[in-house]
Amino acid sequence: MYGTIFNIKVKEGHEQLLLDLFKQSERVPKGMVAWFLMDPDEDKDWIGVAIFESKEAHLSNANDPEQGAQFTQLMEHIKEEPTWTDGTFVISEIMQTG
Questions:
Q1: Residue 59's CATH number
Q2: What predicted TM-score, i.e. pTM, was given to this entire model?
Q3: Distance between CA atoms of residues 6 and 50, nearest Å
């Protein structure tokens, strides 16, 4: 699996607007396995993780015009471009509950 971890500095007062933007999108990029967004207890920057089946799927999404339009909307709610850390996930485990 391949993906990116990103940090975003949300503009003050835009937290709910940003969440609404993410929730309204029904777009599921080809090859996406999962994604997460965290509001850390001890940091103001939100942290996101996007996981794809492969590097190719990740890059295809990054270059998709629809993703570009969604990113433009995202930029309205954050202070600066996110920082990105791309790479291969070398181990993973999904826990089953219940």
A1: 3.30.70.100
A2: 0.85
A3: 8
